[in-house]
């Protein structure tokens, strides 16, 4: 099957799955693509999907990109989730170079001088490497998070990384996410309770004040709105 035929088949499945529940989509994903992984950032959407995966397919691989620049609360959320779900298969994925090596090569605080380069080194390159081992991946993106995600399908072919991509909660709202967290007593990052609706690296994430766009706290003051993982 060539790329065109594969994309056509996936587009057909996307239409069929559009009204399916996130749980139904996850079940379809893990049954259709056993060699699948879930990218977890420990944000509200992703902890929901971890909970669903643990109920549906607890042995499915879950990885996270450790940029070395996460908030301490993010690492603490990871540890609390590991306690909540014993045996959870978290896989740590790190950049090829350390923060010190990055500073030596590109100068101090690269995230200020060239945020795209910093994201490429610490996120995109490690993601490309880990995804090359799989035939499909699951993400927690939602359509109403940003204009760049407005057309996300529940299932689509990820041309950038060359594999099938599932977005089970693409049609959910923030309220849907938090209703699930409350109803299922899901562990979540406490920064969400302190005006951090979207949490990335500590250097590039600030609080979002009432009335601001939920992603206004990411790369504040720059035109950048995505780290390059979901374009």
UniProtKB/TrEMBL annotation:
Binds 1 [4Fe-4S] cluster per subunit. Residues 36-206 form the Phosphoadenosine phosphosulphate reductase domain. Residues 212-231 are annotated as: Disordered. Its cofactor is [4Fe-4S] cluster. One of its GO terms (biological process) is sulfate assimilation, phosphoadenylyl sulfate reduction by phosphoadenylyl-sulfate reductase (thioredoxin). InterPro entries: APS_reductase, PAPS/APS_Rdtase, PAPS_reduct_dom, Rossmann-like_a/b/a_fold. The active site is at residue 227. GO terms for molecular function: 4 iron, 4 sulfur cluster binding; adenylyl-sulfate reductase (thioredoxin) activity; metal ion binding; phosphoadenylyl-sulfate reductase (thioredoxin) activity. It is found in: Cytoplasm. Pathway: Sulfur metabolism; hydrogen sulfide biosynthesis; sulfite from sulfate. [4Fe-4S] cluster binds at residues 118-119, 201, 204. It catalyses: [thioredoxin]-disulfide + sulfite + AMP + 2 H(+) = adenosine 5'-phosphosulfate + [thioredoxin]-dithiol. The keyword Zinc does not apply. SUPFAM superfamilies: Adenine nucleotide alpha hydrolases-like. GO terms for cellular component: cytoplasm. Its EC number is 1.8.4.10. Keywords: Cytoplasm, Iron, Iron-sulfur, Metal-binding, Oxidoreductase. Belongs to the PAPS reductase family. CysH subfamily. Catalyzes the formation of sulfite from adenosine 5'-phosphosulfate (APS) using thioredoxin as an electron donor. This is Adenosine 5'-phosphosulfate reductase. The gene is cysH.
